[in-house]
Amino acid sequence: MKRQQSVTLAIICSVALAIIALKYLGGFWPFRVVNDQILNPIGSAFSQVGRSINSNFSIITRATELSKENKAQANEILALKNQLSSLKEVANENEELRNQLNFNERLKLDLTAARVVSSEGTSLRKYITIDRGKNSGLKEGMAVVSSGVLVGTVDKVEDFSSTVFLSSDPDFRIRAIGQDGRAQGIVRGQLGQGYLFEKITQAESIRKGELVISAGSGLIPKGIIIGEVESTTRSDNAVFQSAQLKPLVNLSSIEIVFVVTGLKQ
């Protein structure tokens, strides 16, 4: 036992002396080379990779946060656009109502407001469908106006909807009067060409810029504006003269109309 301890002690002392000798004689330089040229660069590389991973993770985290913020902002913008659109629609409807009230103050009519739910037809027949019908007291032949201007007559009535025969249809006919010269005749529709005011006797006066109004017939009261005289056609050899009328309402863009259900008592 003592012999083994002595051998172990001798080995430890020898190693210690060798280390001391290597230190003073410069024998550690190979280890420093390995440490400086291999171990340290590897450690630096791992450290740089770690920093890069942390940086990329921060970027991903920030990108996720920005994506959430952008989505929230997009939702806010969409909500604001919806509110703005609703306000514009209300403003447009209020303007239409104001125009209609001004018109109604002049003629004292009972009116029923209706929304246009569809616009259909063929090359020869034009009509719209509105969301009012028998339940609102509508009847076939009633006048339909927009901004105080005649746009057609009720053609077919269902319980909760009606079809409106547009004044631009070539088959549309209505008795009319020139508002200034009081010339009488018939107004008929012309697809894409306004209206034709015809069957006016040569003795009567009609001039450019004059308004033409309904003469009153059936369920259509007198005095509703139909159009404005754009030009006149007259021949000395003809029995009648005629006038081209300019529409005062764009029939393809109307959204709200008013059905004349009667006269105010």
Textual characterization of the structure:
The protein has 265 residues and is α+β, with helices and mostly antiparallel strands. It has two domains: 1-107; 109-263, Rod shape-determining protein MreC, domain 1 (Thrombin, subunit H), CATH 2.40.10.340. 39% of the residues lie in helices and 31% in strands. It has two helices and twelve strands. The longest helix is centred in the first third of the chain and has 79 residues, at 29-107. The mean pLDDT is 79.
Beginning-to-end CA distance, first to last residue = 136 Å
Spatial strand sequence of the major β-sheet: 1-2-5-4-3-12
CATH overall fold name of the largest domain: Thrombin, subunit H
Number of helical segments with 4 or more residues? 2
Q: Tell me the radius of gyration.
A: 46 Å
Number of self-contained structural domains: 2
Order of helices and strands: HHEEEEEEEEEEEE
Q: How much of the residues is beta strand, in percent?
A: 25-35%
Structure class: alpha+beta
What is the architecture of the largest domain at the second tier of CATH?
A: Beta Barrel
Provide the CATH top-level class of the largest domain.
Mainly Beta
Residue ranges: pLDDT <50 for 5 or more in a row? none
Please give the share of residues in helix: 25-40%
Mean pLDDT over all positions: 79
Query: Which descriptor suits the 3D outline?
Result: rod-shaped
Please, what is the oligomeric state? single chain
The CATH superfamily of the largest domain appears as: Rod shape-determining protein MreC, domain 1
Total beta strand runs: 12
